[in-house]
Amino acid sequence: MSSNEPSPSLLLLLVVLLLSWTLCRGDPEPVQDFCVAAPHGSGELAFPGLPCKPSSSVVSDDFFFAAHARGASTDNAMGSGVTPGNVDAFPGLNTLGVSINRVDLAPGGVNPLHSHPRAAELVHVVGGDMLVGFVSTEGRFFSKVVREGESFVIPRGLMHFQYNVGKSAARAMTVFNSQLPGVVFAAQALFGAEPEIPDAVLAKSFQVDAEIIKLIKSKNRKG
C-alpha cells in the first residue's frame, strides 16, 4: 500500500463519523427550554422548528390547548372528524417533537387510508370500538379491534386507518412523535392530485378501465 493512500481503518472511521453526523442532523434536539411558535413573519430564529415568540412575551396560556374538549363534526361522507393538535394549532409544541389529535367517528365512520411521513402514531381509544390497521412495506396487513382504554401503535410512514365497528360513536386520541407529522390521504393523493396524475398511469397501475379512474377522480376533486 502506498504511503499516500488512506488506511482501511481511517476510511472506516470517516464513514462512521459521516453516518453519525447524518443521523444527528436528521433528528436535532432543541437548544432552549421552550420556543412557542410566533405568528408567521415574526419572532426569533429557532432550530429546529418555527420562529420563536420572544420569551419575554410568553405566557402560561401558550402551553394550554382546549380544542380537544369538543370533537369535530362527523356529518360528512366519511362519518369522521379530526381535531388536530399539531404546532400549527398549538404553538407551544414548537421544537418539542410531539403532537396529539382527537379522532371522532360516527357508527360506521372511517378515518380513511392515510399515512404520516414524519411520525409514528399511538392510537388510544377513549370511547367505543375501533378497528385500527396498517399495511407494512411487505404488504402484510396488521389490525386489531381496539376498545376503550386500549392502544395500538402505527409505525412511521405506513398506510393506516381507523374504522368504527361499534353501534355508538367512537373517540380516540392519537399521539405523534413530531410537532408536525404531515398527512397523505391515499385516495386524495392518487385521484385528487393537482395537476392530475394521467388517467393512463392510474388505469395501468390498478389494472382497470380509464372510465373507472375518471369516476373515482370525480369523487376526489377539491371544491
Automatic annotation (TrEMBL):
Residues 1-26 form the signal peptide. Disulfide bonds join C35-C52. Mn(2+) binds at H114, H116, E121, H160. This is Germin-like protein. It is found in: Secreted, Extracellular space, Apoplast. Keywords: Apoplast, Disulfide bond, Manganese, Metal-binding, Secreted, Signal. The keyword Disulfide bond applies. SMART domains: Cupin_1 (SM00835). It comes from the Eukaryota. GO terms for molecular function: manganese ion binding. Gene3D superfamilies: Jelly Rolls (2.60.120.10). Oxalate binds at N101, N111, H116, E121. InterPro entries: Cupin_1 (IPR006045), Germin (IPR001929), Germin_Mn-BS (IPR019780), RmlC-like_jellyroll (IPR014710), RmlC_Cupin_sf (IPR011051). Residues 64-214 form the Cupin type-1 domain. Belongs to the germin family. SUPFAM superfamilies: RmlC-like cupins. Its main location: secreted. Pfam families: Cupin_1 (PF00190). GO terms for cellular component: apoplast.
